[in-house]
Amino acid sequence: MVQLWEQDLLLLVAKLFFMAASIIYAIFSFMIVRQVSLMNKSFTASLHGLFTFIAWAHFFVALAAGVLVFTLL
Amino acid sequence: MHFDGQDNEEKVLLFLRQHFIVNIKWVFITALLLFAVPLFDFLMGLGGTSINQIMPPEYSFILRFFLGLFTFGYFFENFLSWYFNSYLVTNKRVVDIDFYGIIHRRFSEAPLRNIEDITNSISGFGPVIFHYGDVSIQTAAEAREITFENVPNPDKVQDIVSDLISELKGESE
Asked: Which residues of B touch A29 (CB under 8 A)?
């Protein structure tokens, strides 16, 4: 009984950790999007379109991770 | 190529980044993070257990997902910092564009006519082996200094900038 309670508590802590991590990571990934936009203005180069695409893809995957955490756990 | 603030008649003569070897630390950490999960699974397998016996499968899945995402984010952020940290020499000035992390940007420039002294230094095992180092450019304006850090062939860079200054001062005299 005590073990089950401890396990529930651990899972709750893990769940809260993942929730906080997903929110912080989504903010971080959005900052990367903004930073890539700022960097692209510094000088023009052939890979800038690719960087913008990757930054936005990374942001949407981070959002998806957040959705997974809040729905799956 | 074109950079922010470039004049119409201004030409970029030299475009530099730090030597690729300076990325070795974060490339190594990325590789460690990539192999962390397979290695952990392998070690758990040797012990006759698996991560699903320690935590529920959905938690294990989220943990792996986050580790993968974090590894990619770490790689991408470091690569961008290296790629966009650049040094330019034009026919009018030297420009230093610095990005530190994702929240700091610094844009420094000095007109060629204001440059008083250029020094290059190659110091340490890595720089000597791979031939990269710093080029310090001192200007007359309020004792400012622009440093091209860890650029390949710093002696050649110094030579090119010195020649440009000589040309410019020769023209103006």
From this structure: 73
In the predicted structure, residue A2 carries a pLDDT above the cut 70: no
Domain spanning B12-173, CATH class: mainly beta
Model ipTM? 0.88
What whole-number distance in Å separates Cα of residue A22 and Cα of residue B34?
A: 20
Full domain range(s) for residue A60: 2-72
- C-alpha to C-alpha distance for B82 and B22, rounded to whole angstroms: 9
Q: Are B85 and B97 in contact (CB under 8 A)?
A: yes
Q: How many domains does chain A have?
A: 1
Determine contact: A5 vs chain B, CB below 8 A. no
In chain B, pLDDT over 70 holds for what percent of residues?
Answer: 97
pTM: 0.87
Q: Report the sign of the C-alpha dihedral through residues B29, B33, B36, B38, in that order.
A: negative
Q: How far apart are CA B52 and CA A25, in angstroms?
A: 25
Tell me how close the Cα of B58 comes to any Cα of chain A, in angstroms. Answer: 7
Check A43 against B102: CB less than 8 A apart.
no
The Cβ-side half-sphere exposure at A58, using a 13 Å CA radius, reads 26
The confidence score (pLDDT) of residue B101 equals 72
Residue A72 contacts B where some CB pair is shorter than 8 Å: yes
